[in-house]
Amino acid sequence: MIKTFVLDTNVLLHNADSIFGFADNTIVLPMAVMEELDRFKSRHDELGRNARQVIRSLDGLRATGSLKDGAPTPGGGRLRILLEEDVCDGIALDERVTDNRILRLAYALHRKGDNVIFVSKDINARLKADALGIPAEDFESQKVNIEELYSGYSEITVTGSLIDAFFKNKTLQADELRFRPNEFVLMKDQRNERRTALGRMLRQGVITHLSNRYDNIWNIQARNKEQRLALELLMDPDVHIVTIVGQAGTGKTLLALAAGLQATLQHRRYDRILVSRPVIPMGKDIGYLPGAKEEKLAPWMQPIYDNLMYLLRDSGSDKSGRRRKSKETARDRAERLLSENVIVLEALTYIRGRNIPGQYVIIDEAQNLTPHEVKTVISRAGENTKMVLTGDPWQIDNPYLDASSNGLIYAAERLKDHPIHGHVTLKNSVRSALAAVAAERL
């Protein structure tokens, strides 16, 4: 017989996948549980993460059926959200909550017979509306289908003669091939798939070879094809904005910093490197931090500092390629560059309203920014400034964003057809074997 499981909030906060663990039975979530999830969703710890994951999972189920009557679960059961009074004469919602007062009005109009559609960016509010029988929608104008995100890279099958012409002439005039500006193209011989050629679309109909000047950047080399493509975009002065998407350990921040150091210190293209990231902690916030701005920013910028220490661990090579020996440590070099303002670590709070000319700007963890915030940051760029946005859209700590609505994905999608933009999706973790397993399996 079908069983009915009524779940308490602590079950969901302990295991966010628990709503899928009851096979073909019925799961009931009281509205009181939804209220508690609403209170937990803004926390920056494990409980908050689980609350947000449960809410997103419920939002996904909402597309398959009404949560009021019971939405089907992958295991063959049904999941319902019930009011204590099951929406009889009154609505059992706490009127001290502003969202509830809005929902009561929407519900009253719905009961009156109006064709009401509740629109909100708050997923939990949409879930509560659905439980009241009110059609609810997200504000869709800035959402991107993450499954169809532009990768910046395509594979095509061509004739062997086309590949021969590409290697001979260094460029390929192929008007029949339609790709986006700065999109990378892997051409495979139709008779021998192992015979390939990799190029980049500079302008419509013209594919060119990758530059051999970018094979080694700041004494690091790409460990896979996607990293090499990223370096091509990061080092090209004609590409003014680069978006890089990838999971933890794929090398997003390291590549961006290495290219910034090379372009600023060796090529002298930019006056300085400006690095910023949203101040959003992982886990419980450590609270007030004493000291000057630099001291307050230190904990949030530590990942940037770690990458700098790695890149500055030696003093480079002389003209013959031999390592130069120096008594200056990596920490000394990093602190010297910071003290000389060659590298500036800045909170995004201080970027609003600024004009930033002649700088190599890296916005790390950009997936935690809204589309509006990303627009604000990019519009700060002055003459001869390059913007690099990096992030992992599957690791978001902002309670009102998801993989499809964050500013990084939005920018990559909206700018993909512009010739000053380039995009790469990094696929493989190179940090360590352990990090690769964690990104794939956990």
- Poorly predicted residue ranges: 281-286, 316-323
Strand order of the largest sheet: 16-15-17-18-14-19
Q: What class, by secondary structure content?
A: alpha/beta
Task: Please identify the oligomeric state.
Answer: single chain
Q: What is the count of distinct domains?
A: 2
CATH architecture group name of the largest domain: 3-Layer(aba) Sandwich
Distance between the termini: 34 Å
Number of separate strands: 19
Question: What is the count of DSSP helices, taking H or I runs of 4+ residues?
Answer: 13
Kindly provide the radius of gyration, computed on alpha-carbon positions and rounded to a whole number of angstroms: 26 Å
Biggest sheet features: 6 strands, parallel
Can you lay out the helices and strands and say which pair or pack?
Elements: E1 4-6, H1 9-14, E2 26-30, H2 31-40, H3 46-62, E3 71-72, E4 78-82, H4 98-112, E5 118-119, H5 123-131, E6 136-137, E7 153-158, H6 160-169, E8 171-173, E9 184-189, E10 196-203, E11 206-209, E12 216-217, E13 220-221, H7 225-235, E14 241-246, H8 252-266, E15 272-277, H9 293-311, H10 330-339, E16 343-347, E17 359-363, H11 371-378, E18 386-391, H12 407-414, E19 421-426, H13 433-441
Parallel strand pairs: 1-2, 2-4, 5-6, 7-9, 14-18, 14-19, 15-16, 15-17, 17-18
Antiparallel strand pairs: 3-4, 8-11, 9-10, 10-11, 12-13
Helix pairs in contact: 3-5, 7-8, 8-9, 9-10, 11-12
